[in-house]
Write a structure and sequence with these properties.
Elements (H helix, E strand, L loop, with lengths): L1 H21 L11 H7 L12 H13 L4 H14 L1 H10 L1 H8 L3 H7 L1 H4 L6 E4 L6 H5 L9 E5 L16 H14 L6 E7 L5 H4 L15 H18 L4 E4 L4 H11 L5 E3 H21 L8 E4 L3 H16 L4 H5 L2 E5 L2 E2 L26 H8 L3 E4 L9 H10 L4 E4 L11 H7 L5 E4 L6 E2 L5 E2 L2 E2 L6 H11 L6 H12 L4 H5 L10 H18 L12 H7 L18 H4 L3 H13 L3
Parallel strand pairs: 1-3, 2-3, 2-4, 4-5, 6-7, 6-9, 9-10, 10-11, 11-14
Antiparallel strand pairs: 7-8, 12-13
Helix pairs in contact: 3-5, 4-5, 4-7, 5-6, 5-10, 10-20, 14-15, 14-21, 17-18, 20-23, 21-23, 23-24
Length: 587
C-alpha cells in the first residue's frame, strides 16, 4: 500500500509538472534547472542541456532574422508568446523599437486582414450577438480570475482598414501585449475581447476561412443591449474599477458609447482620448521649438472623425489652461472632412454633433490645398486615413508662411499616412516639425543633416495611463487625466531629442517613460479625488513600480531549509515512561 500511495503521489506531482511545462505563463523551456526538472517530474522531457534566459533571447533573435516577411515575423512572435510568455516579453522589452512595428502597427493591420488564414490558437474572448443573456456565464470560461483591464473591439473600424469583423481580435491582443511590454502591467490581469455582431465586408463574408459570424453587421437596438450587458457583466465579475478600453469602434458608435459609459464605468476610448493625448504631447513639445504658446497656433485637421475630434478637444483644454475661454480656443481650430472645409451653412455633408464647435463662418473650401492657402494654419494634422493628402504643393505652402511648419501625418498604417517623413523634411528644406502615426526611418538631407522623425504612437500614453488607473483603482477617467499624461510625456523630451527632430522620447526608453507618466497620473488622480486605493501611497513612483511585471523566470523549487539538529532529535529516554505506561494498560 505504501508503495502504491507513493506512485499515486508521484503521478499527481508529475501531472503538475507537465502543466507547468505546457503553460506559456510558467514554461521556462530549457531554462528549467536539473533540480527543477527532477522535482517537477519533467526530467527527460527536455534535452539534456541548460540555457539561461539571455541565451534563449539570443536564439529567438537569431531565428527572428530568418523570417522572410513582416507577417512571418508576427506569426513567429505570436508562437513564442503562446509557448513562453516571459521570454516573449523579455525579447520585446530588449528592443521595442524593432519589435513594436511587428506586434502592433503597421504589421498588426496586415495580420488582422489575414487573421483567419494565420489562426493558430485562440487568444481572448469571443462574444457574439447570439450570446445575449449569457455574457456573465461566458466570462467564467476565461481562466484568469483577477482581471483588471479589458480591451474590447467590435471590429468595425480596424486602423484605417475598415470593417474586419471578427478578424479585429488582433487589435485587443496587440494592445494588451503593449500594456505589458511598455508599462509592465501583468499579463494575467489583461483580457482581450472581440464582440462579433457580423460584418459588412463582402470579401470576408465570401471567404470560407473567415472565422467570425457569416452575417451582415447587426445595427438594431440589439447591438446596444449587447454592449450594455457586456459592461454590466464585466464590472459585476471584476469590480467597478476594472478598466475597459474601447478600441476601433466606428465613429457613429465610438462617441456615443464613450458619452454613455464614461461617467458610469472605468473606461476610455483610445482612438479618441489616447490619440488626443499623444498628439497633444507632440504639440506641447513643438512649442519649445517654435517658442509659442498653444493659443498662438492655428490648427487645421484633415479628417474629422474620432481622432481629430479627440485631439481638438484636448487642444482646447490645453488652451483653456493658458487662460482662453472654450469658445476662444475653438476659434483657433478648423476641420476638414471628406466633403471639404467644415463651416457653417455649407451644403456639402452634415455639420452636426461633435463637429459643431469647430464649424466657423467662412466660405466653403473643397480641397486641402485651398484650405491651407486660405486659412494659413501653423499646424496641419492628418487623421483621415486616406493616404497622401499632404502633397508637395500643400507642404511647400506650409513652409512659405511658417518658419517652422508643424506637420503631423498621424494616419495608420504607413500606407495611409498623409505624407512620409522624407517628403515633409525635403519639401520644407528641413524646417518641418514632423510627427507620424506609423514609424519612419531617419532622413538625411542633401546638406548632410539627419532627422529622426517622432512617432506619435498611442503606446506612449495608454499603457502608462492604464497602469496608474489600475494601481490607484480609478473608477472614472475624465479628460483631465489625458491632458496630465500629455504633459508628463512632453516633459520627458530632451533638448537632444528636439534637435534630432523627435517630439517624443526614444521608444527604447518607453518602460521608464511609462513609469514616470503613470506616477504623474497617479499624483493627478489623488489630487483630484479620483483614486479609490487607500491609504494614499506617499512614494507614488515606488508604489507604481511595485505593481509592475517581471520577465525573470519563477523558481519552482520548494523553500527547503533545515532546523537545528537538537530540535529534530527524538529522546528515547524521555519516551520510555510513556511506553511503560502503555504496556501496563495492555496497549
Amino acid at each position: 500500500m505504501a508503495s502504491r500511495i507513493s506512485q499515486v503521489g508521484l503521478g499527481v506531482f508529475r501531472s503538475s509538472g507537465h502543466r507547468i511545462l505546457r503553460n506559456s505563463r510558467t514554461n521556462k523551456g530549457m531554462a528549467f534547472t536539473l533540480e527543477e526538472r527532477q522535482h517537477l517530474g519533467i526530467h527527460g522531457l527536455l534535452p539534456p542541456s541548460f540555457l539561461t534566459q539571455d541565451l534563449q533571447a539570443f536564439r529567438v533573435r537569431e531565428n527572428y532574422k530568418r523570417q522572410h516577411t513582416d507577417l512571418d515575423r508576427y506569426v513567429f512572435l505570436t508562437a513564442l508568446q503562446d509557448r513562453n510568455e516571459k521570454l516573449f516579453y523579455r525579447v520585446l522589452q530588449d528592443d521595442l523599437e524593432q519589435f513594436m512595428p511587428i506586434v502592433y502597427t503597421p504589421t498588426v493591420g496586415l495580420a488582422c486582414q489575414k487573421y483567419g488564414h494565420i489562426f493558430r490558437r485562440p487568444r481572448g474572448l469571443f462574444i457574439s450577438i447570439h450570446d445575449r443573456g449569457h455574457i456573465a456565464e461566458m466570462l467564467h470560461s476565461w481562466p484568469e480570475p483577477d482581471i483588471k483591464a479589458v480591451v474590447v473591439t467590435d471590429g468595425e473600424r480596424i486602423l484605417g482598414l475598415g470593417d474586419l469583423g471578427c478578424y479585429g481580435m488582433g487589435i485587443p491582443v496587440g494592445k494588451l501585449a503593449l500594456y505589458t511590454a511598455c508599462a509592465g502591467i501583468k499579463p494575467e490581469y489583461c483580457l482581450p475581447v472581440t464582440i462579433d455582431v457580423g460584418t459588412d465586408n463582402e470579401e470576408l463574408l465570401n471567404d470560407p476561412l473567415y472565422i467570425g459570424l457569416n452575417q451582415k453587421r447587426e445595427r438594431s437596438e440589439l447591438y446596444d443591449e449587447l454592449i450594455d450587458e457586456f459592461m454590466e457583466a464585466i464590472t459585476a465579475k471584476y469590480r467597478i474599477s476594472c478598466l475597459v478600453q474601447f478600441e476601433d469602434f466606428a465613429n457613429h458608435n465610438a462617441f456615443r458609447l464613450l458619452a454613455k459609459y464614461r461617467d458610469r464605468y472605468c473606461t476610455f476610448n483610445d482612438d479618441i482620448q489616447g490619440t488626443a493625448s499623444v498628439a497633444t504631447a507632440g504639440l506641447l513639445s513643438s512649442l519649445r521649438v517654435t517658442g509659442k504658446k498653444m493659443q498662438d497656433n492655428k490648427f487645421l485637421f484633415v479628417g474629422a472623425g474620432e481622432a481629430a475630434l479627440g485631439i481638438a478637444g484636448l487642444i482646447v483644454s490645453a488652451m483653456q489652461d493658458e487662460g482662453l475661454t472654450k469658445e476662444e480656443a475653438c476659434q483657433r481650430i478648423w476641420l476638414m472632412d471628406k466633403d471639404g472645409l467644415v463651416c457653417k451653412g455649407r451644403s456639402q455633408g452634415n455639420v452636426d454633433g461633435p463637429k459643431t464647435p469647430y464649424a466657423h463662418e467662412h466660405e466653403y473650401l473643397p480641397t486641402v490645398k485651398a484650405c491651407v492657402e486660405d486659412l494659413k494654419p501653423t499646424a496641419i494634422i492628418g487623421v483621415a486615413g486616406a493616404g497622401r493628402l499632404f502633397t508637395e504643393s500643400v507642404v511647400k505652402l506650409m513652409g512659405e508662411f511658417n518658419e517652422r511648419p508643424i506637420i503631423f501625418a498621424l494616419s495608420n498604417p504607413t500606407s495611409r499616412a498623409e505624407c512620409t517623413a522624407e517628403q515633409a523634411y525635403v519639401w520644407t528644406e528641413g524646417r518641418a516639425i514632423f510627427a507620424s502615426g506609423s514609424p519612419f526611418k531617419p532622413v538625411t538631407l542633401p546638406d548632410g543633416r539627419t532627422f529622426t522623425p517622432g512617432q506619435g504612437n498611442n503606446a506612449y500614453i495608454f499603457p502608462g495611463v492604464a497602469l496608474a488607473v489600475i494601481a490607484c483603482r480609478v473608477r472614472h477617467i475624465p479628460d483631465g487625466v489625458f491632458l496630465s499624461a500629455a504633459k508628463a510625456l512632453a516633459a520627458q523630451v530632451s533638448e537632444e531629442d528636439l534637435a534630432a527632430g523627435r517630439l517624443y522620447p526614444p521608444l527604447k526608453d518607453i518602460l521608464k517613460v511609462s513609469t514616470k507618466l503613470a506616477t504623474h497620473v497617479a499624483e493627478h488622480v489623488y489630487r483630484h479625488g479620483l483614486a479609490a486605493y487607500y491609504p494614499e501611497p506617499e512614494d507614488k513612483e515606488a508604489f507604481i513600480k511595485a505593481q509592475q511585471y517581471s520577465t525573470e523566470y519563477d523558481n519552482f523549487l520548494p523553500d527547503v531549509y533545515s532546523w537545528p539538529e537538537h530540535a529534530q532529535e527524538v529522546s528515547i529516554q524521555e519516551m520510555k515512561p510513556l511506553w511503560d505506561d502503555l504496556e501496563e494498560r495492555g496497549h
